[in-house]
Specification:
The chain is mainly alpha-helical and about 100 residues long. The chain has a domain of about 45 residues: Arc Repressor Mutant (Orthogonal Bundle). Helix content is about 40%, strand content about 0%. It has three helices and no strands. Helix 2 packs across helix 3. The longest helix has 19 residues.
């Protein structure tokens, strides 16, 4: 189907671009038949420092588990958080009602 692609705004901040793509259906904008797979092995995710209050016993247990694995406890926290986020994402039903067929 060769319909004209919708124009996308040129100059946006990262936040504006995220909002834009959250509100658009890519089927109207991107010609996926011309898409090519790309690998970006050297990209590092943007990180942000946060502060979180945890019970001392939880931190002690985390440090003990991290020590057994010979890794910093903050790294182990990130692994645990990442695993739980993926688990939650995979178990949640996808919202397909806003997608065009």
């Amino acid at each position: 189907m060769n319909k004209p692609a919708k124009k996308t705004p040129n100059k946006m901040t990262e936040l504006e671009e995220m909002d834009y793509w959250d509100s658009q259906d890519d089927i109207d904008i991107i010609d996926w038949s011309k898409a090519k797979r790309a690998v970006f092995p050297n990209l590092k995710p943007t990180t942000r420092t946060i502060s979180i209050r945890l019970p001392v016993s939880m931190i002690d247990n985390l440090k003990a588990q991290a020590n057994k694995r010979d890794i910093p406890y903050q790294s182990l926290m990130k692994v645990y958080l990442h695993e739980k986020i993926l688990e939650d994402y995979r178990s949640r039903p996808r919202d397909t009602k806003n997608r065009k067929a």
